[in-house]
Amino acid sequence: MSTVVLLLVTGLGLGAVYFLVSSGLSLIYGLMGVLNFAHGAFLTLGALIGWQTASLIGAGTWAGFLLSLLIGCLVGALLASLTEFVLIRPLYERHIEQVLVTVGLNLAAIALFEGIWGTDPVYIDGPAWMGMTTDILGAQTPNHLFITILIAVLVLVGMVVFLKKTRYGMIIRAGVENRSMVTALGIDVRRAFTLVFMIGGAAAGLGGVLASHYFGYVSPMLGGSLLIFAFIVTVIGGLGSLPGAAVASLLVGVLQQFTNYYWGFGDFVVIILLAVVLLTRPAGLLGRKAVATA
């Protein structure tokens, strides 16, 4: 029983990391129709700068950890907004060019990060409490998982509230439906779309910092490996559906943990799940034929 509980909680923690990475992808595609293959660069740079910030303040302190989360968010948001402004804005409705540009940016970013920080992973430490465990039905569960899960829930709620209840959220959704009409009303839709990229980048940067604590290390390749599963989660949940991304993240994380522990081929099972979903429900678990906004 304790093994099942531990696998379940660690799977939920892994799913929370996947959601933080995939939520930005889902949000950007759902509202703007942009498949952003440079998303992994936002995550990686947020994790690397966050780690260096925590090292300067004190890697084993709460101040260092919390500041690394904040810096990771800001770095991810800044890089994402620059990417949208410089590279994506001239290429709206030109999807092939978007893919080529974002793939190229991601490859260039990895090479740049390796040149600055090296190729070897750096093992990191968080506050002492995060390295401890809590007993749940006999399972000694790492405390850092609770923080990751809590932050993922807060991000999901915050994104949904932003889109549904705020003025800018309504402008973004209206701009997606009828951009020319919103522009005719004197509203700068481009600024709202940049904000969408900033939010997605902030979630990725936050996810990068938490992922580094989940896996215990940070490296220039961190974003590349997580980006693959983020795309899988986004497709399984339904392109453009935030609730779908949340459900798929938990499903993939838990399935991966259990399968890896008992049989050792969790990644293969996730690919099988992706194939089954694509064959039986091409729009995804909670997706629709029309692009969803939440």
Q: Quick summary of this structure?
A:
This protein has 294 residues and is mainly alpha-helical. The protein has helices at residues 2-32, 39-57, 62-88, 95-117, 128-131, 144-165, 167-177, 179-184, 189-215, 222-237, 242-262, 266-280; strands at residues 122-123, 133-136, 139-142, 217-218. The chain has one domain (2-222).
Give an account of the 3D structure.
With 294 residues, this protein is mostly helical. The protein has one domain (2-222). 76% of the residues lie in helices and 4% in strands. The strands form two sheets. A two-stranded antiparallel sheet has the order 1-4. Strands 2-3 form a two-stranded antiparallel sheet. A hairpin with a 2-residue loop joins strand 2 and strand 3 (139-142). Helix 1 (2-32) packs parallel to helix 6 (144-165), helix 10 crosses helix 11 (242-262) and helix 11 (242-262) packs across helix 12. The longest helix is centred in the first third of the chain and has 31 residues, at 2-32. It is globular and about 60 Å long.
